[in-house]
Amino acid sequence: MTRAIREIAVVVPSRNEALLLPRTLEALNSAIQRFTGLLPEVLASLTVVLDSTTDHSAQILAAHPTVRVGTVCAGRVGGARNAGVAAALALARVPPSQLWIATTDADSTVPVEWLVRHHAFATGGADVLTGTVEPAAADLGRHALAQWFACHDLGEGHPHVHGANMGFRADVFEALGGFADQALHEDRDFVALARARGHAVVATDSCRVTTSGRRHGRLDGGFAAFLAALDPGREPSRAP
């Protein structure tokens, strides 16, 4: 079933990511230009939410006048994502039923076709889209990277959920009450609730995002903690 999407809003939470933010913005700008070049009738915007940020990220963003910038002191990625979506909804020029929110992170780079793929799934009937990610190869040793791929099922219908590559209809977001205001797994809980409420959740590997492969994160149990557990000197076991 085709469902109209007349605007896409990209939301990016960021906390002290000045080192990686320029690369993230460059990739997003390329994706937006590609999207608007192919679908000029669909509006597109980018909102970056600086959460408890103390580095020079604001100065970096000042050089990008088309980027909407929000500032919060949530200290939790769930609250920061919610703030970004709220800003997108407040400034949207279409009703929530025709607004698609695409989320990534400030330490990630999206492919140039990222928004094109999101739009295709959204208009094809998806209420929520969960995409795949992979860690930047330069950040991990060869063995650790091979281990990561060995224990991840990257394909259509995959089981993974990453806030660095998600999308959803704005009216579905409102119906679900947004992300839980928590520091970890807000993305997984959001998708689980969407499935439980009967919304159409589609998992795809067709627009994979590259994210930081750093092993020292801010939270126990997050993506960096998983990478830290990989052994850079050990060959991977075969994926199940």
Q: Which helices and strands, and how do they pair?
A:
Blueprint: E1 7-14, H1 21-38, E2 43-51, H2 57-62, E3 68-72, H3 77-91, E4 99-103, E5 108-109, H4 114-123, E6 128-135, H5 142-150, E7 166-169, H6 170-176, H7 186-196, E8 201-211, H8 223-228
Parallel strand pairs: 1-2, 1-4, 2-3, 6-8
Antiparallel strand pairs: 4-7, 5-8, 6-7
Uncertain stretches of 5 or more adjacent residues: 233-240
Total DSSP E strands? 8
**CATH architecture descriptor name:** Alpha-Beta Complex
SSE run: EHEHEHEEHEHEHHEH
- As for the CATH topology, it is Spore Coat Polysaccharide Biosynthesis Protein SpsA, Chain A
How many helices? The count is 8
Report the average pLDDT across residues: 89
Dominant shape:
globular
Helix content: 25-40%
Q: From the helix content, strand content and strand pairing, which structural class follows?
A: alpha/beta
Rg, alpha carbons: 17 Å
What does this structure look like?
The chain is globular. It has one domain (7-228): Spore Coat Polysaccharide Biosynthesis Protein SpsA, Chain A, CATH 3.90.550. The chain has helices at residues 21-38, 57-62, 77-91, 114-123, 142-150, 170-176, 186-196, 223-228; strands spanning 7-14, 43-51, 68-72, 99-103, 108-109, 128-135, 166-169, 201-211. It has an 8-stranded mixed sheet, with helices on both faces. It contains 8 helices and 8 strands. The chain has 240 residues and is of the alpha/beta class.
